[in-house]
Amino acid sequence: MKRQIWLFVISFVLGICVTSPVATFHHTNQWQLPMIQLTARNAQADSLAPTHGTMADSDVTWTLKNGVLSLSGGTVTPYAASYSQVENGLLLYDLISSVSTDSSTYDALYTYFQNSITKVQLTGKLTLSNGTFSNVLANYFFAHLPNVTTFSGLDNLDVSGATNDTNGLNYMFAYDTSLKTFTAPSLTDANSHPLAYMFAGDTALVNLDLSQLDNTHAEQVNNMFTGDDNLSVLNLSNWATPSTTRYLFDGVNLQNITLSKDMRLDNGAFISNSMLTGPTADTNFTGNWQSVGDGTVDFINNDPLQGYKDYDPQGEVLSNLDLYSRYKGDTALTGNETYVWEPTESYRFTTPDPVIPNPTPTPTPTTPTTPSEPDQATFSPFSVVATKKIGLYSTKNFSTASRLTWYVKKPQMKQPTFTVIGETKSTAGNARYHVRDLNSASPTYGQTGYITTNSAYVASPYYQSAPQTVTVINPKGLNSYPTAALSHPITHYRQGTQLTVKKVVTHNATTRFLLNDGTYISANKHLVTAGRQSVPTKVRAKTAVNRYATVNLTHKQQHYAAKSHHVFKVLGWDYSRGTSTTTPGTLRYRVAGGYITANPKFVTTRY
Question: What are residue 430's phi and psi, to 5 degrees?
Answer without folding.
Answer: -85, 135
